[in-house]
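Batch manifest line 274
LIGAND: 3-phenylpyruvic acid
JOB: complex structure
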Amino acid sequence: MKKRVAIQGIRASFHEEAAFKFFGEDIETIECNSFKQTFQKLEQQEADFVVMAIENSIAGSLLPNYTLLREYNFPVIGEVYLPIQLHLMALPGVKFEDIKTVTSHPIAIRQCNDFLDEFPHLKVVESSDTAACAKKIKEEQLTDTVAIANTLAAKLYGLEILERRIESNKKNYTRFLILTDKQTEVENFNKASLCFQVTNDAGSLVKVLNILAELDINMSKVQSMPVLGRRNEYNFYVDIEWNDTKNYEDAIRRIVKHTINFSIMGEYVKNDKV
Ligand SMILES: O=C(O)C(=O)Cc1ccccc1
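JOB STATUS: finished
ARTIFACT:
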């Protein structure tokens, strides 16, 4: 049976592209209206995996997704980095001069600011995902509208690319996490995502950082989010990577003693090539 992979958005979105990059293209994509719904699909066993964006090199972290990770507690079993290459696409035959409206996902729009600034007469309309914009143009035969989306979307919805690679920063990427509902042993893992709180007093976070430094463990990311209802208290989400598993195990044993509500959200193989 094909792996069922839940994504926020529809087929040919960047989430599906990320899923293809991680699993290959022989998967069943489960289209969802929200990130929360992807987790519900896992919970109801209507999906085997979730692929969820967690950070974009231009827009930054997707903070609500950190909260979902904590609330649902599904293990992270992998990651994938995807370059976000954006193209302007329209129904075949439509000319650039005919266009009045540009539609896309807000992250994609932000990444094309330089291009869009050159054409201030265009009305920019935000939507839930890039592929949905392409699909709408096709279904409603919109001849005055273009979508900013990827090549998968152009192919699947039969649109023509008018302008390639209109993203301002050619090195922009999005990092996606892969989650599942089953406790899966990932072999040879060398990266982990942790979550914890520290006490609100001098040096509490640095104690944790010192443990990592002493054991030669690299912190590749740190993100904090307020703990609801507790002023000046934060959940810290920390990604770490190491060469020696024994050092990782030592670090965990020691960090637990200096933190509150410590959890390992996932252990997986580092996969940060764009
Ligand atoms: O709209 C999409 O295609 C998505 O999957 C969301 C998104 C948009 C832009 C960059 C990364 C993810």
